[in-house]
Sequence to fold (127 residues):
Amino acid sequence: MTKKAIEAAPLSAAGPYSLAIDTGQFVYLSGQVHIDGATGKLVEGDIGAQTRQCLENLKKVLAAAGLGFEHVVKTTVFLTNMSDFAAMNEVYAQYMVPPFPARSTIQVAALPLGARIEIEAIAQRTT
Fold:
């Protein structure tokens, strides 16, 4: 098995992990919070704006791996407040394409940097 780290400037990992790992067939994307890679600060605003930033960050990492949202097979969404689910889902639906990926949505007590949402993904290369 190959194992290659994916980088996607201006985004960077905030610890001892990679933004994504490409194994050849699958690309495992680390969770992205609503941080603006250019400023290093969390995007303010409602959960819709924050969801959009998470997905834009994932889009950059996917592109760095030569992929797009059409390759995503599984996502996990972490919310600090499940009452944000409907607004998150509305923005999420604008990015994902049929057949929609499998997804889990989990409420958590806290996220890094005080974020309200984090989204991770697994993408598959088509042969």
